[in-house]
Structures are given as C-alpha cells and as structure tokens.
Design goal:
By secondary structure, the chain is an alpha/beta fold. Helices cover 36% and strands 27% of the residues.
Length: 172
C-alpha cells in the first residue's frame, strides 16, 4: 500500500476514521490529497512498485497536477519509460503530471519544478513592504516553445513551498 499520513484502513475503505478526519479538518491533508492517494492505491494493482512510494502532498493548478513524494521514490513513481506517470495522467483526466521531491532546499525544489530548464542562479529579493521574492535566473534565452508553463510553476511554488517566484532568463 502506498505510504501516506492516513492509516491503511482509511486508504482502503475511503472512509476516514476520527484521527484521519481530524487531519483533514486541520488542513494537514486536503481533498486533493485523498483523491491522489485513492488513485495511487488503484494503480498499485497493476504497478506493485507503488507500494514502496511515500506520498506527501498534491497540488493542482490549471491542467497540471504536482505530486510530492520522498526524493528516493521519484524514479519509482515515474516508472519504466514513464508508464506509471502516463497512467496517473489518464486517470486524472489527462492532466500534466509533475513529480516533485519532498523536503530538501528551495533550489532542489525549483530545479525539479522548472525541469528541463536549467537554473543559473537563485536570489532572494527583499521588497520595500518587508516581503521577499525568490528570483530564479534561467540559463540561455527565452525558448520559442516553452517546455514548462511558467505561470503554473509560479503558482505551484507559492502553494507548495510558499515561495513568491520571479523567473527571468539570462539573455532576453
């Protein structure tokens, strides 16, 4: 069974016990997390390697679904030739799936989020109102066909890591 914050009974039955219901009420897990956990549990039947994956969080923006798992489990959830990710995408209504590692520093998170684009440097910008922004400068020029939707990346960075992200390219 996919490893998660929920007890195995709740994952199998789809009915939350009082302890897991409290986690939902307090916001430690969301309805989207429950949906993704159920989806991964279904896929375990045809992809048993998912039983070893530790799921942490899911976030959704537009047509992109980000799934956070332990860093060591990223390869397991992607699957051989991306088969598992394609299966997740099909079950999630054709959404684009982004697998991200849980934990680590902001640079690792941003490298995974903006992949396949290469990050040259990351800076913190302090604004006059006392807030901060994280500025990621990407290598090269702005590509004609962007492999990553930068607005989606900004929204996911805000939702998952609490980062206000500004993205620029080395050469405009």
């Amino acid at each position: 069974m996919v490893r998660t914050e929920l007890c195995s009974f709740c994952v199998k039955s789809g009915i939350l016990c009082p302890r897991c219901q409290e986690r939902l009420d307090k916001g430690r897990i969301t309805q989207l997390d429950l949906k993704v956990i159920g989806l991964l549990s279904e896929l375990e039947k045809s992809h048993p390697i998912l039983q070893e994956v530790h799921f942490h969080k899911a976030a959704e923006f537009g047509e992109t679904l980000a799934i956070m798992v332990d860093r060591r489990d990223i390869g397991k959830i992607v699957g051989l030739e991306g088969r598992i990710v394609r299966a997740i995408s099909e079950r999630a209504g054709g959404k684009r799936i982004k697998i991200l590692g849980y934990g680590g520093d902001d640079r690792q998170f941003l490298e995974e989020l903006l992949s396949p684009l290469s990050i040259l440097t990351i800076n913190t910008v302090w604004l006059p109102d006392g807030s901060t922004e994280t500025k990621a400068i990407l290598q090269g020029r702005t590509p004609r066909h962007m492999p990553v939707d930068l607005e989606v990346a900004k929204q996911l960075a805000r939702e998952i890591q609490g980062l206000t992200l500004r993205i620029e390219f080395e050469r405009q």
